[in-house]
Amino acid sequence: MKHLMVDGRAIALDKDGYLTELDDWSEVVAEALARDEGLHLGDDHWEILHLLRSFYAEFQLSPANRPLIKYAALKLGPEKGSSLHLNLLFKGAPAKLAAKLAGLPKPTNCL
Fold it and tell me: pTM score, two decimals?
């Protein structure tokens, strides 16, 4: 099992780098995960990460790309809910990478 060290605490990760415990998530943990992915989180990233956590709270699952795009468009408007916007923010893998950074499980239908 992998671990991520955050503030002197070992956070357990699965083999793909996702949190094993949803309650371990915090913005500091998200920033550490993002650093490991070579990302610096800006306001647009945080907006999507918090949106994803809301989606998970409502539906108890991590969305794949298409539902993520539709949900973002519904909640944030068509400009932010576009595949281009999300792909640019999350290196071409928005559902997988955003779910990881939001502390959620890997979307079930993502390879």
Answer: 0.93
